[in-house]
Amino acid sequence: MSGIDGLRPPERDRESFHSSRLTGAISSSLSTLTDLFRDPTGHRSIKFPEKLFKVLDLKMQNVAMGKDPQYNDQYTRRVIAVFWGSLKAAEKPSSREPSTSSWRQIKENRKIEELILFFVTTATQALRKDPNLSGDAWKYELDAQISQFVLILRDCLRNTNHVPPEITSRLELYTARLAENARNPGGHGVAGRGTPSAASIPASAGAATGSSNPPPQSVDDMRLASVVGALFGKSKQELQSDVNLIKQICSEKSALNDLKTCLKNINADMPFPGRREDFESDEAFHRWRTQELAHLSQLMLAMIQLKPDLARFMPSDSSSHYSASQRPLSASMLTTMELGTNPAANITEADYIASDDEIEAGNKFVYIPPNPKKAYKRLVELCLERDLEAMAHLPEDQEVSLTILSHQHLELLNESALRWRISHSYRVTCFLDVIRYKYERDEVPIECVPEGLQMVDKAMHETPTELWSRFDMDYVSTVYGGLFNVFLGALYEALEDITKLKPEKIAPYVHVLETVRTSGLVERYKADIETRLNDLADRVRVQAVHQYTDKNYELMSNPDPNRALPLLHLTDHLEKQAKLLDRRFPKPILGTLDLVSLALESQIPLFLTDLGDMRVPLLEGSTRKPPEVPLADVFALYRRTKTLLSMHATFCPDSPLDYDLGGFFEPYVLQYLVNTDLQTAQWVHTVRSGDRLFEAEGEEGHSSSIVDLFSNLKSPIDFLSNLSWPDGYQEARFFTVLSKASSKLVEEYCRMVEDLFMDEMFPRQNKDDRQTKQYAFIEKARLTISGEKRADPFNFTSSSCVKLNNIEAARNLLDKLYARIDVDKLSGVLHEHAILPSDAHEKQRFLFTVKIVQAEGLVPLDLNTSSKPDTFATLSDEKGIRLAKTRTIYESLTPRWDEAFDISVEYSLWVMASVRDRAVIGKHDTVGRGYLFLDPKRFGDYLTHDLWLDLDTAGRILLRISMEGEKDDPQFFFGRAFRSLKRAESDMIRVIIDKVAPLLRQYINRAALTTLMKSTGAPYDYNKALAGVTGFYRSAIGADKADSLIPLPQQDKGRARTQALTDEEIESALAPLFDYLDSNLQTFNYHLSEATKGTVMAKIWKEMLTTIEDLLVPPLANAPSDMKALTDKEVDIVFKWLKFLNSYMYADGASPLTQEQLQNQKYRDLLSIRLYYDWHADELMEEAVRLMQQTLRAAPTVKKRAKTVYSQRNLGTIRDRKREKKQEAPGGNADMILRILRMRPNTTEFIAQQFDAYAQAHREQVNQPMHRSRGQRSRASIPEVPPVPPLQERL
Fold this sequence. Notes:
Largest sheet: 4 strands, antiparallel
Structural class: mainly alpha
Number of strands: 8
């Protein structure tokens, strides 16, 4: 023993290790431990329930603490306490006890034999250490404790659910063996205190297993008999009488004969207990047959071991109709075996235990009823009914088992199933069936059904259904089908009101239905199940319709002028209910019943129908003044309707709705946009009336007014964007309307800024009319006397700079607006859905751009031929309404305005171009008129055309005209807005240049050259100059003879300068100009933004170059000029002035202009004058011809289209346009040569020929592509000139 105790075998031999250790310890038990635990079936895969650990733990705790009176022996309590402590220590994860691995294996395998062996090991160690058990006494005590532990296990299994009958029968066998060993100690000891008595053996060992001992005469000793008597309502006397009546029939021999008959029926292929045709496959049948033979043999062996006298009822002869290989084991075999061996060990699959010859196959049984399954089902019903009656009298807080069955009834059912050969699959199915129809009668709670399903599921897990008998398979399918119908009906009733339906209410039904459905046992009822599920879906739909109808009636019954409110409440209700159902039931019930989808599928179409019925009332209510239906409510209704449609599309993909959401709500969006368009003027007025309209804020130098103005546009843009309109084309149309309103807003703002800017540039006098007239007369008289007009310096203010900065800021904000609404994408959508012209309902409008370039050949209106008018030009329509007006060009007979205006035309239009002379007092005089016919057919080539209009008096005016189709396109309207900003900026900068230009001409002119040149010739006669000034003064105020001349000092008399002028002296002539520029450019530098500052400085530099150019050469014309060429010295002075101006504008790199910008093409053309200025006339003419031919060859064959609003729709396209213009090849010096030739004699004919040749070449270039595109189409006839309309005076 010591050697064995010291071994530590591997895990796989642990069971044999325990057996070997106990072989010597249990000397009074069976001869070997293997005999005790040999499995007659040959299969040891059956596990006890996991719940047994918990029940056993509580049982051992009570025994160890002396709380269980049945097990109050001191040794029993001590051994159980040690065993319990070992289990607790082994359960700890950090335990290093040797028994830890054994305990883990027991918990994993759940074998009853391993648990008993673990107890034997622990008990052996505890009893051997007891000093009171000397010698072999501890061995006898060990036998007693093993018997006690087996009884404890049996009691615990009775308190545990889902115990396989094989475990119960095996434990009963162990109990019988240990009891037999106690009665037959085999000479090694006597039945001592630890040996169980006959009373401790269960009644089933005598009554049910057929013990050879005489059955007890009193029913008090027959526990199961008492349970049966109570079940059938028998009194103790009646039960005793019945027992006495049948005791001769119901004997141990009869029980053994029943087992024999079952064995013989199996061999004879009789219906009971089973045969091949009861199973689907040979595998299933052979498995059942092997297990059934083993179980029957086990029961017979237990009876023989308990009562060896029963072996004499088993003769030794064998039935002659069995072959030698299949000869069954006879009773003589059992009698010849020693008691210490296990006869079942000699039974193989070829050896069957047969009954005596007098036992025949058939249905003659004593203990087995004619229909065992029916009887068992009735017994289950009776047990359940009796236990339900008993539960009615229990306290409410007392917990009861979900199986309802009491321990006594469970034991009775187990014993009956064992003796009646009821399969485990039938037992669990029968219990579920009884629970099912009792649940239908409201006799058991719903929680019992999942318990029954769990029992069936466990049975199917242990033994697959394909190994069940056909009857059991059909039975369980029928029961599952019935359960499915029952709980579908319960679910149908629960769906009565889906608004109040909660998951916990239907969770038990769904759980049962899911369990039944996923089992695969109801596939045969698939068609019926689908029909029932469709009924459930229809019920949900009907309930949803009723719910919607009731809510709609409730909301519509309350009269309210705002017809949108009931619909809003209705959409809110539908959305909340759908979200509530989705939150409560995120997954479809039973995988197919989606409550949210069914509800939305039924309710949304009804709502859309009701919404369509309210189309006219909603539209009429929103257009009334004041509106009864606010647009805000309408758009809230749109958003909620869109949400409902989105939910319907998500939850009901198989039931799409064809509803035109955009078509229903489009009129309201258009109404909103109309209101927005009407507010643009109000927004501009609000900005203008602000206290801080043109106060610079921030580094950019613009005021907050422009930011506030574009903030007003942010609201409608956000509004349209947030609508997420379903129709992309309609959304593009909406943004087109908004773009048009934005363009209108920008144009209004530009007009406002220009008006305010002009008020600053040309301030009005605050005197009355008389003072104004008197002042004008005196000023004219003074200028007439002096013989010259000196320009008054105009000093610019910061407010003017802020206005310019506002225009630049507006361009940046408009560009951000362009990118924000993605105008290019919207235009692409519009082009994809473009309507053909034949299908268009509205006539197309055309946008003419008329640029008033210049006038020439004007004659003064005064008698004084030397006077020059202050001219401006206007455009008027046929009704005399002014369409455009230029700025005023002072004192010029060849004014150049270069101002463009847009005129929108639907049909042809006559336009009158007037040149007028601005009057200081009274009406402006008309210098001349010309007429222009704007016809879309004439300008259909979309090219730029230069038209000279002859004035009715003398002279002519040049107009540059282009046309483009006015389109409902956001790119078009953004282009107009950008062009309005650009023109406003150009006009304002041009006014600034007009204020600076007189100062430039005043200090850079031929008179200044003459003065500078005289200082180098004759001596400066100061007395003569002073005498002239004095004489002029006396002629004005009267002479005084008393006055005397002032003598001059000698050093000032007759001084003459013969040396050349220095650079300082030449530059000093420009000193007053530089002083003026210093003061104003400093204002520009501090108050203009960087971009605007660069533009203004570039324009001032261009004006400087133009002034220098006009000083050197006359303007380009086809007639000779009376202007004389400068001398070489004068030319040198002029170019030094140009150098000084260049250096001044560059300012050593501090200027916003770079040398590349300063030395532009015009600057280079000026430098070329120095080259050609001294050439002979013939040389100049030859060079002019060569350069013109070169220019014509380099000119493109197809003339470019005019600059359209599309090329100015954002800052990106504007920059691209500038880049292209910069990259174009610069023109030659032919024009400059012609201008020089105008100062040479005998060049009149050549200049005229050059002009005619250039005009002819230009016409051929224009007409060639026009003829290719138009074919032989005749030009549209021009109607007669309309009568001259009356002029409308506008100051």
